[in-house]
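step=encode ok
step=design start
structure_in=
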């Protein structure tokens, strides 16, 4: 009879532990979420590498603000958002530095050349990304690219061309990067990529 009593007590203890374990885990999770939401708030947002854009413009384009929870910031998403809002930025690196700092490092595009599309001039950088529309005066100071069929233009995006001319975009960007690297952009007026074997 005594053995049965002990078994019953053990059974009750097992049932109690099975009942309290999920409650304890839930409480730990709630405390953890509360701790993360209260602490690890962004106190500092650092921006480096800016030239054309101001720090405030970059911050506005990022959508970040002090007080945001650093754990919930998607660095890649913030980087894409900044580039979409500020097309003159060729590269954006967003880093989270615990416990309360976000660092944004940018490098800017160089408005090297122009292409003609539907009667308008469009400025492109060394990577073939479209920066903005310009007038004849603005185009006069840039390398005029010809010999490529443009299918679409999107600010902040690489030149849209027909599929069979994708290779031309590759060669175009290689030449533009070489011109930029050599520092001879001011001495180049035109760039004809109609024949990639003889640009």
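sequence_out=
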């Amino acid at each position: 009879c005594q053995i049965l009593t002990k078994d019953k007590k053990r059974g009750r203890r097992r049932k109690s532990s099975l009942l309290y374990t999920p409650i304890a885990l839930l409480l730990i999770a709630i405390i953890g979420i509360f701790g993360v939401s209260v602490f690890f708030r962004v106190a500092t947002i650092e921006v480096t590498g800016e030239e054309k854009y101001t720090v405030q413009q970059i911050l506005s384009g990022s959508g970040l603000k002090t007080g945001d929870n650093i754990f919930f910031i998607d660095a890649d998403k913030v980087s894409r958002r900044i580039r979409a809002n500020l097309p003159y930025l060729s590269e954006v690196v967003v880093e989270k530095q615990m416990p309360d700092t976000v660092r944004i490092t940018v490098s800017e595009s160089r408005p090297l050349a122009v292409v003609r599309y539907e009667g308008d001039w469009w400025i492109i950088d060394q990577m073939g990304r479209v920066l903005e529309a310009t007038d004849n005066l603005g185009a006069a100071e840039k390398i005029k690219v010809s010999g490529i069929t443009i299918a679409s233009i999107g600010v902040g995006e690489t030149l849209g061309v027909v599929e069979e001319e994708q290779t031309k975009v590759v060669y175009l960007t290689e030449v533009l990067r070489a011109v930029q690297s050599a520092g001879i952009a001011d001495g180049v007026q035109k760039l004809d990529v109609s024949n990639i074997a003889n640009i």
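step=design ok
step=annotate ok -> The chain is about 40% helix and 25% strand.
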